Amino acid sequence: MKWSADGLIAVTGASGRVGSRLAFRLAAEGAHQRLVVRDPSRVPHLDDGRPLPECETAVAQGYDDEAGMRAAFEGVQTVFLVSARESADRVAEHVAAIDAAVQAGVERIVYVSFVGAAPDATFTFARDHFHTEQHLRSTGLRWTVLRDNLYHQALASFVGPDDVIRGPAGNGRVASVAHDDVADVATAVLLDEDPTRHDGVVYDVTGPEAISLLEVAAALTVATGREIRYHAETVPEAYSSRARFNASAVELAGWVSSYEAIAAGEMAHVSHDVERLVGRPARSFAQWLDDYPHEWEALRRRGPEGPPA
């Protein structure tokens, strides 16, 4: 039996894209896990409606729900911590969740961060991840950081209702990654027979190649049968074209700076950590389009509505 199957694992964000995938993988391996959610009706379950085996559910109304998070982490050995929704208070929420884990006696945190996390990162949300990582390192807990790149699904969501990807990414490249590859890496780290080999390690979780948004548009054109184009905006144009969403200044800066970071080459690094940890290469964007058509099917009919990621 794998080491962590003997200890309780708390999976935060268990109703989200990464957390739900991880929950199914841990259940398949017989790991004992506690799924932490805001809404218990959204807890992952088997196709027949039964709960996942060896799973408990804990409800907390966000990372700043101090009592709820402490209770969710009580008796837990390892916490898988996904990032909170983007907001001005995001770092404070992450700190609160980490502190709740410390107070509850948790031994280890595996944190989902972002590639290039740094105090001066072009992508503003990567700065949030840097400050979270710094706090995690200061706690004395055992920790592992998974620095994910942009998700393949996010690239597909960049397509506007007029079939155009707009953003100030220039000719930059991005080594985007599939949610499933991130979940596979997390499973390998959480259930390693010798978990100490991951203590104090930062993994870059990327796809197998760095692609331009022109190449993204071309791949989506082939997949959807519609002409998807990329328009390289200036930074002022990017802020102007997104003004109609009435987003907060923090969200708006995050959206625009994600493209700026691509232009600056800060998302182009290709890591082989997925292959090393999982035993197979990461899925390329083209492979993801083939393997997960349900995740971009709306593009066959029309561009997705809503704000660009």
Automatic annotation (TrEMBL):
Its EC number is 1.6.5.2. Residues 13-192 form the NAD(P)-binding domain. The keyword ATP-binding does not apply. It holds the Pfam family NAD_binding_10. Keywords: Oxidoreductase. One of its GO terms (molecular function) is NAD(P)H dehydrogenase (quinone) activity. InterPro entries: Ergot_Alk_Oxidoreductase, NAD(P)-bd_dom, NAD(P)-bd_dom_sf. PANTHER family: PRESTALK A DIFFERENTIATION PROTEIN A (PTHR43162:SF1), PTHR43162. This is SDR family oxidoreductase.
